[in-house]
From TrEMBL:
Name recorded for this polypeptide: Uncharacterized protein
Taxonomic classification: Eukaryota, Viridiplantae, Streptophyta, Embryophyta, Tracheophyta
Transmembrane portions of the chain: 6-26
Keywords (A to Z) from UniProt: Membrane, Signal, Transmembrane, Transmembrane helix
UniProt similarity note: Belongs to the DESIGUAL family.
């Protein structure tokens, strides 16, 4: 197994867990605040749950999704390396610009 794939997988798991925890924390805190809040003096300011916590959780969730995308790319790369699967797209450098121009494929007819 690829070392970089394992590292990115562990990072993706940790970031996803922290994002989930922060999102649950902000949601539960806000729900408890709204259900248990009783104001006897209406002139005081009402503090709500920490809005930065929910925004940070959303940012971490975005980071986690990008890290999961990198994990998918590394998985495809490791699969191609270890299973020696054929790439249906061909080899690099197989088609050259000069070959396309000589065959007339570079400028199709109108």
């Amino acid at each position: 197994m690829s070392v970089s794939l394992v590292i990115f997988f562990i990072i993706a798991e940790v970031v996803s867990g922290v994002a989930l925890g922060m999102m649950l924390w902000a949601t539960i805190t806000e729900g408890l605040h709204r259900s248990r809040n009783v104001h006897y003096n209406l002139d005081t300011e009402c503090l709500t749950a920490k809005t930065g916590l929910f925004g940070g959780a959303a940012f971490l969730a975005l980071d986690a999704s990008l890290i999961w995308l990198v994990c998918q790319i590394l998985t495809l790369n490791a699969r191609a390396d270890y299973l020696e699967e054929d790439d249906s797209k061909g080899e690099y450098g197989q088609v050259y610009v000069t070959e396309m121009e000589t065959n007339g494929a570079a400028h199709p007819a109108p």
